[in-house]
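User: Fold this; tokens only.

Assistant: Input:
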Amino acid sequence: MDEVKQPISKAKRDRRSKLTSFLFVLPYLIMFLAFLFFPLIYGIYISLNDYNLLAQDHPFIGFDNYARIFNPDSAMFTLFFDGLWNTVKFVVFSVPLLVIIGLALALLLNSLPGKIRGLFRTIYFIPYAISVSVISILFLWILDTNSGLLNNFLMNLGFDPVPWLTRQPFAWISLVGATVWWTLGFNMIIFINALNEVPEDMYEASAIDGATAWQKFIHITLPSIRPIMLFVVITSTIASFNVYGQPYLMTRGGPGDSTEVLLMGIVDLAFEQRELGIASAMALLMSLIMIAVSIVQFKISNRNQEGRKAR
């Protein structure tokens, strides 16, 4: 009898284990379906309709919204591609700084004595916990042309005030500088964790061979943290593509429309002009572009890594 009951008891335990695992996953699954999957499906549906919130009917128009975006004679073409170009410029300006300075700070903090390392890590990470509205107000106070803290300091030194937020290239410098100061702490913490995983005996062996600090960095540190580096590059790119709060609150898209990023145009279409159909189409195209850029970055990184292994 015992031999017959044993498989049954084991099967029950397996089912109970699977049920327990499913219950742990269930809250995330509910949130994923409610806040990501269903809104995505509904967004695709809306993009295929002439969906104006002020109209009672929302007729199905197929891919007409997408055709308007790619029609050079349409105002939507200008709005989308001008906004996309400004977004790409922000990505190109900010991502290298976020990666390079984040890694440099991580290396610097790792070289500090352990007693003060945690203090400086906290100091550099604190801005990341502040909301974008607070950061924008802070930098508006610092960079205001007439009464900003920085211009007051420059004028006390005998220099003319700088139009940080009202003239190019100062507007881009201000936006990128504020973003780097605000979000740098996250990348720094990721890099610190990655550096702590590099085996110490590799550095000791290279020191015995007479390797310099730069050679250790190039031949040991960078190859060891390459997967984390790729993660940081991709997440920073996605975050920079989604920039909205800084240009909206600091420059209002100016001077002119030189800092009006794509997300600002999409939000204006959806909530000011009530054109949810065309706004959804633009948002989906923007998502596809971000996915494509991430795939390209991943492929390039893998190809470079395979090339090094082949040597």
